[in-house]
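Entry 14. Structure prediction run on the chain below.
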Amino acid sequence: MGKFITIGYGDSAGYERTDEAVRAAAHEHDARLRAAGAEMGIAGDPVQVRNHGAAGAQVTPGPYLRSDLPVAGFAIIEADSVEEAARLVAGTPCAVAHGVVEVWPLQT
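Output returned:
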């Protein structure tokens, strides 16, 4: 079984225009993923860290990554394949509420 990092992108406008029953089912889906061991959280305010040449850390507020939708949250899930991981996150709020979820295999 492998680990996958998921990044959910979405905004409140997409969330609000999604049927309330669909949103409720998505939050129940998240609860089941958490109960199965997924680590999930809402994204806070990021900082960028640079330490070029190990000459001293430079920390800058704000994201480095840019996208059409803001980063809404992250999760670490376990699955047998990237296809299974994609199926697991297909019912999450970002996936169903006009957002998108990226699935990244965590290679160790």
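The first helix runs from residue 12 to 16.
Filed with the rest of this week's runs.
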